[in-house]
Design goal:
The protein is an alpha/beta fold. It is built from 13 helices and twelve strands. The protein binds pyridoxal-5'-phosphate.
Length: 390
């Protein structure tokens, strides 16, 4: 049978990145005592009011077809949130709803690029980016995020990689997996380079509310460059409800009017009762994300402390997000070998760094989404694993 080239391009880029995670779930289902530090599922219970809003909307009959751009109240709530957070007037015409940040990125890339273009992305990058870029046939160009710069993208490193066919920079800030947060000056420099080379900036800002050191700054705060900037995010992390699959893109009105038909063709609208719960969450004064952020930062420091006695592995304290990278170079293993052996021998599941790009290959990524005691136990097992490798 014949398939379209997109299926070949995506062949090893979907769930293959998460093989170790799925193996972990299998082991757990068999009753093995695995400590799972793989994916980023918030462990704090979401606000009861948000769930109540969803249920009452569902029972009120909000189960019919909806608008392609998004439900009016939800668009309004997103526009209001961005007006306040970015410091300029954002209208509903600047917004489109999507089922999560993932789809918002997919549709944006599809709407802006094709196989004749290249897309620049910082490496390390979020695991699904490779597939998202490959889906359109565009070439992926990695911009090295260097540890000596705290894994923050430097405009000079970006400019060095830009080519004639480059159309878009996919900028993840705050970054997963590194937890780094770009400064205002770094964002301004990056914007300048993107304008000089006529690039769109697609800013994945899903962790904007989970910054615990430094200040979040969005390219959308830069008035002069707004006509080339799209910000995407969702309720997944901020309200602890990734299963809602509810996100959005905010950008120039012209961009949105071009993207709405694409969104309609792909999705034919969203889920009204989820849209209502999204609007409720965005309009609420929930402190959920602040509580979550403090517990993640506390856990990141706990891990740094618990791993300190081992001089062979080096945790990199994040400034944001729900993960911590640990450099395993000095064990003589790369992240992939380390992660699989650790799972086999000590029943601790961490993500191999190479799922997040070439520059993360000598790292493993630990999720901060399990309670403190278990994290400390995981660190003890990691240390004893490292010792037995001597
Ligand atoms: C950087 C980044 N972007 C996007 C996503 C996907 O988010 P969503 O649930 O909104 O699709 C994640 C999820 O972990 C992420 O870490």
């Amino acid at each position: 049978m014949k398939f379209a080239p997109i299926t070949d391009r995506l062949m090893n880029l979907g769930s293959d990145k998460w093989t170790l995670h799925f193996r972990t779930r299998e082991l757990k289902a068999k009753g093995e005592p695995v400590i799972e530090l793989t994916i980023g599922e918030p462990d704090l219970t979401p606000d009861r009011e948000v769930l109540d809003a969803l249920v009452s909307s569902l029972y009120s009959g909000r189960i019919k077809y909806s608008y392609g751009r998004g439900e009016p109240d939800t668009l309004e709530a997103i526009a209001k949130k961005y007006t306040k957070a970015r410091g300029y007037q954002v209208d509903v015409e600047n917004v489109i709803c999507f089922p999560g940040t993932q789809t918002a990125i997919f549709a944006t890339i599809l709407g802006l690029t094709d196989e004749n273009n290249s897309i620049l992305v910082g490496d390390p990058y979020y695991a699904t980016y490779e597939g998202l870029i490959a889906s359109t046939g565009a070439k992926r160009i990695s911009v090295p995020l260097k540890q000596e710069h705290g894994f923050r993208m430097q405009a000079s490193d970006l400019e060095r990689e830009i080519r004639e066919d480059s159309r878009l920079l996919l900028l993840n800030n705050p970054n997963n997996p590194t937890g780094s947060v770009l400064s205002k000056e770094e964002i301004q420099e990056i914007c300048r380079v993107c304008e000089k080379h006529d690039l769109w900036i697609l800013a994945d800002e899903v962790y904007e509310n989970l910054v615990y050191e430094g200040e979040f700054y969005s390219p959308l705060m830069e008035e002069n460059y707004r006509d080339r900037i799209i910000s995407v995010a969702s309720v997944s992390k901020t309200y602890g409800v990734p299963g809602f699959r509810s996100g959005w893109a905010v950008g120039p009105k012209e961009f949105c009017s071009h993207l709405v038909p694409l969104a309609e063709t792909m999705l034919f609208g969203g889920v009204p009762f989820i849209a209502d719960a999204t609007a409720f969450a965005l309009n609420s004064t929930s402190d959920f994300v602040d509580r979550m952020g403090s517990s993640y930062f506390h856990r990141a420091k706990l891990i740094v402390e618990a791993l300190a006695p081992s001089n062979k592995i080096k945790p990199f304290l994040p400034s944001s997000g729900m993960f911590i990278l640990v450099d395993v170079t000095e064990t003589g293993m790369d992240g992939e070998e380390f992660a699989w052996k650790l799972l086999e021998t000590e029943k601790v599941a961490v993500m191999p760094g190479n799922s997040f790009g070439k520059n993360a290959a000598s790292f493993v990524r630990l999720s901060l989404t399990v309670e403190d005691d278990l994290l400390v136990e995981a660190c003890h097992r990691i240390r004893s694993f490292v010792q037995t490798q001597d």
